[in-house]
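Hello,

Our lab assistant flagged a job as stuck in the queue for most of the afternoon. It eventually completed. Since we weren't sure the result was trustworthy after the delay, we are filing this so someone can double-check. Below is the sequence as submitted and the structure that was eventually returned. Let us know if re-running is recommended.
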Amino acid sequence: DERVASRTSLKNLNAKYEQTKNALYALGSTYFGIYYVNLDTKRITTIRRGNDVRSIFDEDILLEEIFEKYVKTLVHPEDKAKVAEFLNIEKIRDMLTEKGQRVFVEYQRSFGSVYKWVRLYFQATQCVDNRAVHIIMAFKDITEDKEQEFKNQKALNDALIAAKLASEAKSRFLANMSHEIRTPINAVLGMDAMILRECKDENIREYALNIQNASQTLLSLINDILDFSKIESGKMEIVPVEYD
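-- returned structure --
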């Protein structure tokens, strides 16, 4: 019975080992660098790493020295300050307050003769007194995602510029059109006023009054359009007057 139980236990352990190995293999296809970090001892254990960082992520070197060398050797000059601030052990402890919590930073990293975008994750695996003790450190290549993000941002900016130009063209058109239309309407109102002043025929006067009302309504509408155009162009003048 003991031998059967031992064989069953061993079989279960082997199954769990295979599951863990498969999980790490799957993670390895997503993350090109994976490390287990003990923040108390300031030591790392390599799970997966590339040959280009073998001399940097040395398990015999303390964490601060690894981080300093990594930033100095591989991180793009524009991102060095940001990454150096992120790779602060005490700050990592403070950011990760419970098991499973994760934080990350994005930056450009040298891969030989080219720079690629990388996302560095820290995920807490053990915390004591709401501060991380053991963490997983993982590196992911996000160059394609970033390039797509830049393309989308450019398309959005181009669309915004096009919309702004269209809006400005609309405002100019409305302003010009309103000025052009207001001139003949004023002429119509002037002629209509002459008819009302000189004509004694009640039917004609009624027609003239209808023309006057319609023209004044149209003129008021055009003046409103001109006011909106002035507001959009920043030319609206505020005149303070006394009122009851």
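-- support follow-up --
The delay was a queue issue, not a problem with the job. The result is valid. Strands lie at 33-38, 43-48, 102-111, 114-128, 131-141. The two ends are 104 Å apart (CA to CA).
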